[in-house]
Amino acid sequence: MIKITKFLIKSSKFIIIYGDYVKKRCTMDLLSDILSRMRLSGTLYFRTSFTSPWSIKVPRFKNVARFHFAHRGRCFVRVDGATDPVLLEQGDLIIITRGASHTLYCDPVTENLAVQLDEVVQASGFTGNGTLVYGAPGTDLETQLVCGHFAFDSGTNHPLIDALPPHIYIRNYGEAAGSWMESTLRVIGAEAGRERMGGDLIALKMSEIIFAQALRTYLNSDGADRPVLAGFSDPNIARVLHSIHQDPAFNWTLDGLAQIAGMSRTSFATKFARCMSTTPLGYITHWRMQIARQCLAESNIPIINVAEAVGYQSEAAFGRVFKKHFETAPATYRRQCAALAEAAGRAEP
């Protein structure tokens, strides 16, 4: 697969110095905090010019969320495992959340004639610059897609992402997300693959918002009743989640969380478990471990300070929870990350 470049969403945090370690306190909204902590990154593959007849098989790509935005024209998308294909019309967006293989095709009669994507890329002479051109010449039946994928740092996960369906389809995405998104998508479509100075970088930087905005749109519509996703849509549970993310190291209790939710202890615990498919304290532990994992991988802060920064008063207690969560001790995990980073550095030209 030929990639053009990558972008990275970096989190906006206040960094406060406490003696010999750094404690990062999140000051952003809930969804932004999750995506930033997981280091949402994206790769833009190409802008297409597909002319009928055509049918292309896109292989499975593990641990990514692939996207196709219909800038002009239309096509069908058959995601492996799905009962029905999606008709992607101009202005529509589809995100294939777990990188499943899928077929893009112009007409139902061409679906079973699909050519593998790598063969299409090779036959077209596409080098990673400009537009991927494929199909019969001299026809006005053109489909222009902007294609790429989103990924997260290795080792990160979150119930919100795990709970997403195999694909998210948003009709007339620009309009659904708001007029500003519609304008953004027009710019992305106009810049991607045009070989104008800085065009691909502009398209990538602007496309950072696609995944976050698609999630927000989905959470407020079709995803509002799905397990886990329902918790982010419910005002009482979302208020609690926001408080947890604002201060994950706080000594949270079920009574205190129920008070934030404005509910009785029993009602809150029941509703949280129903919406989030985990207990409140289970969610807190999971999020603390994600913060600790990142801190161990990216800094030399003493482990006791990492433990205290995520709410543990002893290194031993923290180590037990971390090992249960990641199946390795904190110090071992840090050494493994350092070794991987060193190997990656040596592999760079």
In short:
The protein has 349 residues and is α+β, with helices and mostly antiparallel strands. It has helices at 30-37, 117-124, 159-162, 173-177, 179-191, 199-219, 229-233, 235-246, 254-261, 265-276, 280-298, 303-309, 315-326, 330-347; strands at residues 5-8, 13-18, 21-26, 41-51, 55-58, 64-72, 75-79, 86-88, 93-96, 102-105, 115-116, 131-135, 142-151, 167-170.
What does this protein look like?
There is one protein chain. With 349 residues, this protein is α+β, with helices and mostly antiparallel strands. It folds into 2 domains: 221 residues, Jelly Rolls (Sandwich); 109 residues, Arc Repressor Mutant, subunit A, CATH 1.10.10. The protein contains 14 helices and 14 strands. The strands form 3 sheets. Strands 1, 4, 6, 9, 12, 13 and 14 form a 7-stranded mixed sheet that branches. Strands 8-7-10-5-11 form a 5-stranded mixed sheet. Strands 2-3 form a two-stranded antiparallel sheet. Helix 8 packs across helix 9, helix 11 packs across helix 14 and helix 12 crosses helix 13. The longest helix is centred in the middle third of the chain and has 21 residues. It is globular and about 70 Å long. The N terminus is likely disordered.
